[in-house]
Design goal:
By secondary structure, this protein is an alpha/beta fold. The protein is 59% helix and 6% strand. The protein contains 23 helices and seven strands. The strands form two sheets. A five-stranded mixed sheet has the order 2-1-5-7-6. A two-stranded antiparallel sheet has the order 3-4. Helix 3 packs across helix 5, helix 4 runs antiparallel to helix 5 and helix 6 packs antiparallel against helix 7. The chain is elongated, with a radius of gyration of 26 Å. It starts with a helix and ends with a strand. 46% of the residues are buried.
């Protein structure tokens, strides 16, 4: 099938000496700058929303640790995020706030939108890049992770930068461009190991274009170097696979959800985008070099998700946010489809009359703007308090209001109930943590380590008044503590204490127990 499609790709539209001309083309500059500006505006809109959720809370607390403490932690947990935690340690050093926590993701998404525009301009024409970059920028799935203090937006930027580097290396030939491609893949791989799936997409791109053996030899040598560089991370993270044991085997519902995430969360927008994508797949644009836009974008959008979904049928690893870097292929194909349709419309083609081309570019941008308005409620929801699974800030504010230095406190269960205290330690000041054995940094763990059940029983004998931070899961019917220490807490509270006060937030409950 791939061979047949390759044969249908039109021949290069420009001679070899002109392939690099788009770099200095004002149209290309506009196709890069405008989507980047729109993405920056979308990313910074509502960036100062109050509170972080669970995963962001981990980033926030890890940024407070020293580099040796981070290294000690990732040696046995969260190795996949080790480089990101180290970067955030320096980013949040001046001011550890929530806006600064999310700002690198905004910058990553902004860079990705510009790279989508650049890729579309190089492989097709500037207005295709403009439309693709704008469509990428207004997609709610992109906007969500552009505002999250995790690595996924940066990984997407790294993969797109590597894809651009690949196109330059293939188009220009020689060995000068391959080191940049290798460095980008290594850096992105250390940010998140799932980015190595992009290599499968790039391999399909080279197969599609039927590049000469010299290109294959250079690419395989680069992949070998990248793999060797990532082996330590892959080896360590494989030993930590229990961290994702909660993931389920993906099915049709996950595939359907991924399609909506990539093409648009509403049925109308998704249907229109996929219709343009179908045109872009079935009717390719003329190539501007060895690689076609379809040959680059289609494998990027399809191959990594297919590989991850296939692997997850045996070892569940699928999570839609791991595939954010693949989304760029969808707007590129949709823009190519729009360009193909536009070319069917009769009109003046004289180079002396450029106005119609400008009007077409502007008209396509307006259509993307309409799609943004159609998806505006989704963007607004993603910036609201209920968009994430929890809000650690709300529980921290409650604790700061009710607790006083020296108050005894228990967390039920641990570590789930400790997330707010770990993310916002200033709101839990100088408390008497009855069950504490060692702090998280001292223990080399994400959260504080607790003492044995027998020691906790002895400590509770001297406590007459204790505040209890309770994770919402512990209040569900049928919940039972799994660790001996948590069982000791629950049994002692039921047997020896009376409930006097209760305050509830979406992320947890704060109760005051007093010994009668």
């Amino acid at each position: 099938m791939a061979v047949a499609l390759v044969r249908n790709d039109p021949a290069p539209a420009t001679p070899p000496r002109q392939r690099n001309r788009p770099h200095g083309d004002p149209g290309t500059a506009v196709a890069v700058a405008v989507p980047a500006a729109v993405m920056a505006a979308v990313g910074t809109w509502g960036l100062d929303r109050d509170g972080v959720w669970g995963d962001e809370g981990v980033t926030l607390q890890m940024a407070h640790r020293t580099l040796p403490e981070i290294a000690r932690l990732v040696s046995h947990i969260d190795a996949v995020h080790g480089l990101y935690y180290a970067l955030m340690h320096f980013v949040l050093a001046p001011y550890p706030g929530e806006v600064l926590l999310r700002l690198p993701s905004v910058l990553g998404a902004t860079l990705t939108a510009g790279l989508v525009g650049l890729l579309g301009s190089r492989l097709a024409r500037p207005r295709v890049g403009l439309w693709a970059g704008l469509l990428y920028a207004v997609t709610p799935f992109v906007g969500r992770y552009a505002q999250e203090g995790r690595s996924y937006a940066l990984v997407a930027a790294g993969v797109l930068a590597a894809t651009v580097a690949l196109t330059r290396a293939v188009h220009e030939g020689g060995r000068r461009r391959w080191p940049a491609y290798a460095l980008l893949l290594v850096g992105t791989g250390w940010l998140h190991e799932m980015s190595v799936l992009a290599l499968a997409a790039h391999a399909c791109t080279l197969c599609w274009a039927r590049v000469p053996w010299a290109v294959w030899r250079a690419w395989l040598a680069t992949v070998a170097c990248v793999t060797i560089s990532l082996l330590p991370l892959l080896f360590v993270s494989h030993g930590q696979s229990a961290q994702v044991a909660w993931l389920d085997v993906p099915g049709r519902e996950q595939v359907r959800g991924l399609a909506y995430s990539f093409a648009g969360p509403t049925e109308a927008v998704c249907a229109v985008v996929l219709a343009f994508v179908a045109v872009g797949v079935c009717a390719s644009l003329p190539r501007r070099g060895r690689l076609s836009l379809r040959g680059v974008a289609l494998p990027l959008a399809v191959v990594p998700p297919a590989v991850l979904l296939g692997i997850s049928q045996y070892q569940p690893l699928y999570y839609d946010r791991y595939l954010l870097f693949c989304l760029a292929g969808v707007p590129l194909l949709a823009a190519a489809g729009a360009e193909r349709i536009v070319r069917l419309v009769p009109g003046p083609r004289s180079p002396r009359r450029p106005a119609p081309g400008l009007l077409l570019a502007a008209g396509g941008a307006v259509v993307v703007g309409v799609s943004f308005l159609a998806q505006l409620p989704v963007h607004e929801h993603d910036r609201g308090p209920s968009a994430r699974s929890d809000d650690l800030r709300g529980l921290a504010v409650l604790a700061a209001r009710e607790l006083r230095p020296g108050d005894a406190v228990l967390f039920v269960p641990s570590p789930g109930a400790r997330r707010a205290a770990a993310a916002y330690p200033a709101d839990f000041p100088h408390l008497h943590d009855v069950a504490l054995a060692r702090t998280g940094p001292e223990a080399g763990e994400l959260y504080d380590a607790e003492t044995r059940a027998a020691t906790l029983t002895h400590r509770l004998r001297t406590v007459g008044r204790v505040w209890v931070v309770i994770d919402p899961r512990a209040l569900k019917p049928g919940w039972t503590p799994t660790s001996p220490t948590d069982r000791t807490k629950v049994d002692a509270l039921r047997r020896d204490f009376e409930l006097r006060e209760e305050h509830t937030t979406r992320s947890g409950t704060l109760r005051l127990y007093v010994r009668p």
